[in-house]
Design goal:
GO terms for molecular function: 5S rRNA binding; structural constituent of ribosome. Part of the 50S ribosomal subunit; part of the 5S rRNA/L5/L18/L25 subcomplex. Contacts the 5S rRNA. Binds to the 5S rRNA independently of L5 and L18. It holds the Pfam family Ribosomal_TL5_C. With 200 residues, the protein is mainly beta. The chain has two domains: 91 residues, Ribosomal Protein L25, Chain P, CATH 2.40.240.10; 79 residues, Beta Complex (RNA Polymerase Alpha Subunit, Chain A, domain 2). It has four helices and 13 strands. The chain is elongated and about 65 Å long.
């Protein structure tokens, strides 16, 4: 999985007054949980643009001004209700030998037979929640939809991997091919339905 580095300053004062002063200076107050101690730090708001304003997922290296580096993932983010400025970010420290839970973007591959016949691909999930070691988690989970006909569905079990555990029920649908007014019969479909003559 891709990693971003954020240069930050550890902060000792965490009261409302200190937090307000940070925000007025264009800094975002942040917290890292999950380690031996709770760590407070701050970084310029612009430093988070490639982490927050993207559909991709990343692990993060928090490079503190005291020389310490902390590996983490974004846990929660608060925005101002009017200006949408970032008010606060929570991170969780991660370790190479401890599984983490993340939502990984899903991407289709191939060209669905049902879509070629005029059907429409509908998504139920754009991200898949998985659990695994940080080094094993992919940047994106891909699913081949080539053989999907009209009415067919792609399930989370179709994109299972030994590298991670999918945290959705097995019958969870990722995407499906729905019929449309422009849909025509799939010429390669088998059985009586494909052979039946068209009604006048």
């Amino acid at each position: 999985m891709k990693s971003l580095t954020i240069n930050a300053s550890q902060r000792e004062s965490v009261g409302k007054k200190a937090t307000k002063a940070l925000r007025n200076a264009g800094q975002v107050p942040c917290v890292i949980y999950g380690g031996e101690t709770v760590l407070h730090f701050a970084a310029p708001e612009i430093a988070f643009k490639d982490l927050v304003y993207t559909p991709d997922v990343h692990t993060v290296v928090i490079a503190l001004d005291n020389g310490k580096n902390v590996n983490a993932i974004l846990q929660d983010i608060q925005f101002h209700p009017v200006t949408d400025k970032i008010l606060h970010i929570d991170f969780i420290e991660i370790f190479d030998d401890k599984p983490i839970t993340m939502e990984i973007p899903f991407k289709t591959t191939g060209n669905s037979r049902g879509v070629r016949a005029g059907g429409v691909l509908r998504f139920n999930l754009r991200r898949i929640k998985v659990k695994g070691l940080p080094s094993k988690l992919p940047d994106v989970i891909e699913g081949d939809i080539t053989e999907l006909r009209i009415g067919n569905k792609l399930y989370v079990t179709d994109v299972a991997s030994e590298d991670y555990t999918i945290l959705h029920p097995d019958n969870t649908v990722i995407c499906q091919v729905k019929t449309s007014r422009n849909a025509v019969a799939d010429s390669e479909e088998e059985g009586e339905e494909a052979e039946a003559p068209a009604e006048a």
